[in-house]
C-alpha cells in the first residue's frame, strides 16, 4: 500500500470537503425554523432546529405523487435499459457482423446529444404520434438517454472476460442457455448492477429533457421541484433534498449490507 | 482400432492452414503429448477434439463413433485449459460439482464423488475456498478434478503446467502422471516443453507448422529423431557437416568412427551426436583433441563447450563430485561409434 504524504492527504481532504460541503449545508438548512434558506441557529439547539419544512412536504400531495412517479419511472427505465444492453453488449463484444461499430455508436449517441435537444425532439415526436403525456412514452425516452451508461459498463465487464471459462462450462455438459445463466451472467453481474444503479440515478435525476416530455399527470420529482422553485424559494426544497440524500444513503447502506457494494460495483478479484 | 482417432484432420483460418491433414490414433488409457513450438497448431488440434473449433476437413472417431459434428456439451470430454478457466464465483467444491450437476446426478452422489475427486488431487481441505484464494498449483489441480469427476473417456490438457514455476512444475508432472495412472483416463496433453513431454507420456507427437512429423515413444523419439528440426527441438544436439568415406565420417579432413549408414562413398551428410554421449579424456587419448572454451555448472551436470578441428562440440558430463578441467585446458573427446550418426531426413 502507498502511504499518503501530508500534501496529498490535504489535497484529498479538500476534494472530499468540496464535494460534501453543499450536501451538509442543504441538510442543515432543511432543519431551519425560518421562512428563508437560512442556517438553523446552533447556539440554541432545541428551539433552533425545526421539522416544519419536512411536515410541509407531506402537505403537498403533488410532491409525494411525483416522488412515487419518479421512483417507478427510474426503476422501469433502468430495468428496460439493462434488458436491452446485455444482449446488445454481448453482440457488440463477441460477434462479427457488418454495422457492428455503427450499432455501438448508435447506442452511445444519446450521450453526446444535449438533453435540451432531445427534449424538444421528443416533444414534437410525441405530439405527432399523439402520445403527449403518456407514461410509457416517458419511460421510453428515459430508456434512450440512460442506455449508454449501462451499455458502457456491461461492455467493460465483458472486455476482460476469459472466454475459455464459458468453453469449460460447455464441455462440462452445459447448454448455451445454462452457460449464460450459470457462468456469464454471474461473472458480469458487477457491470450489470453498476449499470442499473447508474441508469437509475440518471433517470431519477433527469430534469432538462423531462421538462419537455412530462405532462401534469406524469410530472417527475426533479420537474416538480424545479417548477416549485421558480415560484417560491423556501426551505421546503432543502427538506426534499435532505430526504433524497437520506434515502440514497439508506439504499446504499442496505445494498452494502446485503451484497457488499465493492462486490457488485467493482467485482470480486 | 484406436480408441480416439483423427483422420486427415485439417483446420484452415482464412487462407492459413493451422492444422494440415493430421492422422493420429490414441489407445485407451494411453498418455499422449502433443509437442511443438508456439503456433504449430497444438491448441487448434485439441480444440477440434473438444468440439470448440470446427474442423475444415477430416473426421474424429471416439470408440468407433464419428463425433466430428457433435456439440462440445454432448461429447463429454474433460478439458483443462491453459488459464485453468475455473468459475471464479463458485467454490472449489461447486466448480468440481458443476459437470455432475449438468448430468443430473443427485445431490448425495454428487457430494460423494466431489469428495473422492478432491481427495485424489489432494485438495480436501480447500473445498470451500474460492479460486482466487488458491495458489497456481492448487488451481491447476481443481481444473483437473473438475474435468475428471465426470469420468470422461478422454482428458485433454492444454499446457496445464506452463504457468507454474520450475519446482512446482516438476511436482505437478509427477502428480499428473499419478492421477492419470490411478484413473486410467486416456489423456492428450499439449506442451511445448520437451522434457515434460518425454517424462510423462507413453507416446510423443511432434508437431511442426500444422503437421505431425513424428509419433514415437519418448526414448525412441530422443534416440531416433526423424529430422533436423526434431533432433534439435527434443534435447540438445551437436551437428557436424562432412562426408561418408570407408564406413567412417570425415569431418574437416578428420576421420571419425560413426554408426553405419546406407550412404554411398563420398556422399555429403550431416552427422549428429548428443552432448551426453561424448566422454572427456586426457589430451591425445581420445578420438579428437580440443580445448575447453566454456563450462557451465547445472547442478547435476556440467555443460562444456570444446573447440576441436572438426568444430565446436557441446559436451555434457554428469557431476560426480569432481570439478572438470577449466576453460583453456587441452582435452580429448571420445565416443562409441554408434553415438555419431548420419542425420535422417536431411
Ligand atoms: N481464430 C483464429 N484465426 C486465425 N488464425 C488463428 C486462429 N486461431 C489460431 N490461429 C493461428 O493458427 C496457428 C496455430 O494456433 P494454435 O493456437 O493452435 O497454436 P499452438 O500450437 O497452440 O501455439 P502455442 O504453443 O503458442 O499455444 C497460429 O499460427 C495462430 O496464429
Ligand atoms: Mg496453444
Shape of chain B: elongated
% residues in beta strands of chain B: 25-35%
**CATH topology annotation of chain A:** MetI-like fold
Uncertain regions spanning at least 5 consecutive residues of chain B: none
CATH class of the largest domain in chain B: Alpha Beta
| Rg from Cα of chain A | 23 Å
The percentage helix of chain A is over 70%
Main sheet characteristics of chain B: 6 strands, mixed
- Quickly count the domains of chain A: 1
Largest sheet of chain A: none
Global mean pLDDT of chain B: 91
Number of H/I helices of chain B: 9
H/E element sequence of chain B: EEEHEEHEHHHEHEHEEHHEEEEEEEEEE
Q: Identify the quaternary structure here.
A: heterodimer
Computed Rg of chain B:
24 Å
Shape label of chain A: globular
Task: Note the main attributes of this structure.
heterodimer, A: 269 residues, mainly alpha, MetI-like fold, 13 helices, 0% strand, B: 346 residues, alpha+beta, Rossmann fold, OB fold (Dihydrolipoamide Acetyltransferase, E2P), 2 domains, 6-stranded mixed beta sheet, 5-stranded antiparallel beta sheet, 9 helices, binds adenosine-5'-triphosphate, binds magnesium ion
